[in-house]
Design goal:
The structure is a homotetramer. The first copy, chain A, is α+β, with helices and mostly antiparallel strands and about 325 residues long. The first copy, chain A, folds into two domains: about 15-130, 2,3-Dihydroxybiphenyl 1,2-Dioxygenase, domain 1 (Roll), CATH 3.10.180; about 145-305, 2,3-Dihydroxybiphenyl 1,2-Dioxygenase, domain 1, CATH 3.10.180.10. Chain A has five helices and 18 strands. The longest helix of chain A has 13 residues, at about 85-95. Chain A is globular and about 50 Å long. The interface between A and B is medium-sized, with 35 and 35 residues. Chains A, B, C, D: Its cofactor is Fe(2+).
Chain lengths: ~325, ~325, ~325, ~325
């Protein structure tokens, strides 16, 4: 039985995913993509950084772009319930033998930098500068009208191990794909905030970041984004979709930023706050788990991901590419 | 300062609102409304009851219709985290001197019946029969395509008192209307599950149930419902909307069932899981708090509500009707 | 029988409504409304004029704003099939004893200025400068994403007379409201281009322009416009809607420009190209003819209209205001 | 120069495409597809036929299913302006040496059966039984909520010849694809009723019917249909899309009926009533002409089509498959 029982009393309380820090080679090109095309709002910027938030977020940033020589991911960050939980997190990671470090992060309170079971850099904090609401300043809405960051999806070289580790931290599995032949997990979606996922794992060369997702109002906003990207020089950046996922039931689009970081535009999954919510199991051989409507994902979608800084990814011992519909 | 600090460590853990039990005079008429028109799914029915769930719910029921001589509300129910929390709730209500009673409820585990600060009947449970997912059985989708119950809204004769009481139970205020002249609360929206509200209170003859809301996919489903109701004999049951609320930013429609119970069809509010989320304050004199687009609500919307069984409502000592735009 | 048989072989061939020329007192205020808020595209402008087109139009203009001391309408214009039809139109109006005049109009070929049966100024032309398509330049889409001008609606002091006159010109009635008591027409919708109307007439102090309509992609664009107007200082300019008309079955919103000219945002009527299409009759006492969902229009909607330059409107001998739902 | 000047004064007046007659092997299977899944309305049926109309059509049928041993197309039909035009059509086809025949067709007046330049069977009539409007009986709307038939698309072994022939009949080209190397037409879209096309031609083994299109309200209805088909056993019948066409700018989905007849679900093209509308030219090498967003069509889409009864298709002398994006 591959899915552990949900850990309803975790050692510390993670509220939700919070933000990612992306290395990007050309801040202006990234700004054109994230601000002018997707419609994220700049909350601060200088020669080295752009801080972005989506329309309903009151925290200072949900995406940080950092000018760099390479396009590596610096960290994935999570918000904790309060300062006490942050200290508990520190002690827990330390007790596990993970590297722990208190770091300074602009616009954030005390921040713990550590890593997960694969060395993937994660940062935990409880306090971030709060900004006035802008969700009713409709003149600011632009592009795909992004409302909030929704989830991370990571390649993992061993999804069973990932799920065990994140389950210990209280992430609850909502859906998963099992390889019927080996009985091993192929992919799993785990949440803290009451949606289908805050972070998901899929089998492959890992750890790498597969994508970061933003929630948008309706499928029509995704269609609008396709029209916009197709006619403003970004047609080659549309990688997959739009379509409906089997897993999560969400309406999706996958696009690539100028550095190749994959962004999912996402809406319409379901509420998962019940502690007794039963995970939904999918068979690796069912192509509708990926796209309910049957269209296959392109090969790049299974293979391409973003590297984490200073973390060498490792091959999975399961085959690296799932059955793709012909 | 009218809003109490959020109680982040409440005496017991309510997960979310769960369901309501409505007295209805004519089950067939109610079935035509809720099943054939709105699209709720029947999970059980007999001569005396109809149990209903919405499309993404896995609990057995989110609305129970009970044939009765009168159209009174029997209870509003909430789901607790686990059995331990249910016992804690029992003790807390008892310690407050509230009537507490263990009751049998079909398809539910141990259920506590008690009442709130105004005598409004509430029921708490932790376990309900779980049903297989149907959210991807698209052939079942019908009417407004209701996805899940979203919130209750109640008239309260004293909103300050209501907020204090529910805040003690851990309901966090997300938005509120203050009467600038008296400094008293006119209305407040409070949540457990991470949306704008699980339960809201508005000033008036109370306690009475103002409405019960169901979440739907997009505003277009609400437009579809208007078209359907307008051409199937329900045009007089469309009371207000569709429109955008200022408070909650949600897209809404208010309709009346055959017994006069008000249902809100609702989508597009925002995520509120952050424990440090700042409540948004609205002025009673700002008509956009009700309808962002400026259209006034009809008088019935301020005056009409459903009675709770065996609970005599009491006049508020604030004026009973707010400023209505001309 | 109030509706004349359709005149399938009219004396000249009008293709469609083309454009209106509005007097406006403050070009900058009008520009903020039509360009920045609605999303019409400027095709030319100077100190005295702004020429506008919608996104799928290839003719140079469908709305001309002309700086003026008063907010009067200068003309409503129609496009003819070719030059021969224009000469036939000239002769027909002249033979009727109507004033006819060849006028110079920027970006247009030979233009005939004349008037209808009530003295309402109309202009006819066959050739206008053609512009490159922009309907796939999605970065230009803005506001309500207006696609094309759809129709004019005019107050007429005698709708029977209006319908007879326009029917002679080949406008075909698609829907109409009859006052059952008098057997007279209350309102009528007449078309040339294959939709529900190019021009409609409604009983009242006339001739005056009731509104000019633009077609938009979907009801969601209308919701977006409401959100935008409500939060950018235009909330008082939202007069009626959004909603579904009974007549035309279109989804609508009525807004007022800074001079009080009424604009309808409109989509989803039906195709009417069949010459044997039966007009749909509505009873004046049926409130769903106006709003299928039952919501009444505000009094201003029945009373307010724009004056045509140098044309004194005349009271109708039918009552000036129809039955309004309470 | 491949596009002929529009023939604005054709020998007879075709109003619009009207209907198709499909041979189908299993009426029950076809009924499940067209009625239960797509939502077309049955206007008559017996052991041998099902007559269907879409929601806003008042003519008796826009699709006729005829039980047969083979899945061949019996005819494509067009509606003429009046009886005089029908006689003119008869004489014109006869003068061209085409076979002409007056045939009896249920629910239609006098009907001319003839064929186009490739022998493709076409039928012309001016009168069909008119049915009461149902476009406001919203309880009948189902499936993709089809509003009306929009166009036919045919494989032609020689698109230049097709365009010349249909242009003679007054079909006006709105968009076309030219093979830059040979200067020959690859595909062309031609209309009568004021949209992008009533009939289009694409290079290939011809004549064959590529698809028949129905117009629907919005892209969301197309998404709903995908969800429905994907979960009711029709996932393999979803062939291509949804997406935006470059040509026509329409939002589309291609599906296959149980006999392999291809249906396009279509919305959002543009109005083309101006006689001086300039055709838009696309280069065969531009993949965005097919899908604005860049996704390639599957090979089947270029190769599969429906045979016309008793018409042997002929290979094109241009290559049979265009450049497909990798």
């Amino acid at each position: 039985m591959p899915i552990p029982a949900p850990n309803l009393y975790p050692p510390f309380n993670i509220i939700r995913l919070s933000h990612a820090v992306f290395g990007v080679k050309d801040l202006a090109a990234s700004r054109a993509f994230y601000v002018d095309t997707l419609g994220l709002q700049v909350t601060d910027e200088d020669e080295e950084h752009i801080f972005l938030r989506a329309m309903e977020e009151r925290g200072h940033h949900s995406l940080v772009l950092r000018k760099d020589e390479t396009s590596e991911i610096r960290s994935l960050a999570f918000k904790l319930f309060d300062e006490g939980e942050l200290d508990k997190a520190h002690d827990w990671f330390k007790s596990k033998g993970h590297r722990v470090e208190w770091v300074e992060r602009a616009y954030q309170g005390r921040t713990l930098r550590t890593h997960d079971c694969f060395g993937m850099p994660i940062e935990l904090y409880f306090q971030m500068d709060r900004l006035p609401p802008i969700h009713q300043q409709y003149a600011l809405y632009n592009g795909v009208k992004p409302l909030r960051i929704d989830h991370f999806n990571c390649f993992a070289q061993d999804v069973d191990t990932a799920v065990d580790f994140y389950n210990e931290m209280g992430f609850r599995v909502t859906e998963y794909t099992e390889d019927e032949e080996t009985g091993r997990l192929w992919a799993a979606w785990t949440h803290r905030k009451g949606g289908v996922h805050d972070i998901a794992f899929t089998n492959g060369l890992g750890p790498r970041l597969h994508h970061t997702a933003f929630w948008v109002p309706t499928p029509l906003n995704i269609i609008d984004l396709c029209d916009l990207m197709a006619t403003t020089g970004y047609v080659a950046n549309i990688e997959r979709g739009p379509g409906r996922h089997g897993i999560s039931n969400a309406f999706f689009l996958y696009i690539l930023d100028p550095d190749g970081h994959r962004i999912e535009i996402y809406c319409s999954d379901f509420q998962t706050v019940d502690p007794d919510l039963e995970p939904i199991k999918w068979d690796l051989k069912d192509p509708q788990r990926q796209t309910l409507w049957g269209a296959p994902a392109p090969r790049s979608w299974f293979e391409h991901g973003s590297i984490f800084q200073d973390v060498e990814p490792v091959e999975s011992d399961l085959a690296a590419t799932p059955i793709i519909a012909p």
